[in-house]
């Protein structure tokens, strides 16, 4: 081994001499070469197996240091590669929604983003199924209890929001699974949607007027059911028939706060007979317009569920929601227009048409994590991605294009900030997918500007651009 190293050293010095222009140095190096060749020849003649013993002390030390350095370098590289591989594997959750294996390059890219932004990929799909099963069991009990009452009929729930759409950027313990509970009027009542004329809320708010209708006539009149219109108040009182108008309404209008209180009371009284009560302990959290529940296992793991009450606008995918926004907290009789169901349907359609391993949800998670805490809302980001999903062919959302699509999202947002305009996705959008059902006036309406506040405040726009540029630098140059 040492003889081979000596031979390699001789050849390297010979090459070094041949490319060196300095004659003095050439002479010195030629002499060194001759000495080394003689040394190698003598060593070979004396004893090939112990040739290193006659080397000079300085040369032995030099060779030992060189070999040791190479070995240390190789060991360090092996240790680093093994550590990096383990970290990449640990960053991929064993029950992640992406079932197919990723290439090493893709894994490395995801690993970089996950490390940089501390991205958590919770088990959204499996936990969402647990939540839907629980809520469906609750609704089955409600149907058996309230089927012949004046309480609203609770329709099958619809999962909405980032957790149900599959892109929540939050840690597993902070994810809230939001479920819309559509309300239908009970027999003897009708719901009429009216614009909010109080002047306190924008045009996206309405009130739900409750009207009593006759139950005496019809295709199959119920002879045992009293009619609020044609039976006397004395008969209704004697049979303990209470009107919906007296319990869950304020005046003639459906009250979201009263409905939330009624349903919270129902959940508390019903939980003990639920099958899930054997696995989870349940606590109803304070909420005046929805029903928030915290489910806790003995292991300490928890689930956060929010049930929001809603009324459908005709046969469309647009609903009125009892849940107020952070910026708007109207009276209980004012219901805000919500596009959450249409958005969830849009993402389901994309999932069916996109490539098997589309990166659009991962792009949303990454950008949402990056923009968290900034002046750009998650809804503005979501709207941006929905626009891009209709502009860029779905075939271009394969996982290998992840960085390109992230760059597209950031550039689109940057342009919208400069122009102080981000169009609402569901108003006046010519690229709206056919599967999304909207009220007729939505296509003719002027698009709402989600950045209207920036158009009205130049200083806020300047600050938003500055903050966004810092975030972009953090994304591209902060690794």
Can you lay out the helices and strands and say which pair or pack?
Blueprint: H1 2-18, H2 23-46, H3 57-91, H4 104-117, H5 124-146, E1 153-154, E2 158-160, H6 161-165, E3 176-184, E4 189-195, E5 205-212, H7 233-238, H8 244-247, E6 249-250, E7 253-254, H9 256-270, E8 281-285, E9 290-296, E10 302-312, E11 319-321, E12 335-338, H10 340-353, H11 360-371, H12 378-391, H13 402-419, H14 440-444, H15 452-455, H16 458-477
Parallel strand pairs: 3-10
Antiparallel strand pairs: 1-3, 2-3, 4-5, 5-12, 6-7, 8-9, 9-10, 10-11, 11-12
Helix pairs in contact: 1-2, 3-4, 11-12, 11-13, 12-13, 13-16
Keywords:
ten-stranded mixed beta sheet, globular, two-stranded antiparallel ribbon, alpha+beta, disordered N terminus, 479 residues
